[in-house]
Amino acid sequence: LSRGEWQRLSIARAYYRSHRLIVLDEPTAAIDPFEEDRIYRDFMELKKNHTAVVITHRLGAVRLADRVLVLKEGRIVAIGTHDRLLDESRYYRRLWTAQSKYLQ
Question: Which domain holds residue 30?
Answer without folding.
Answer: 1-56
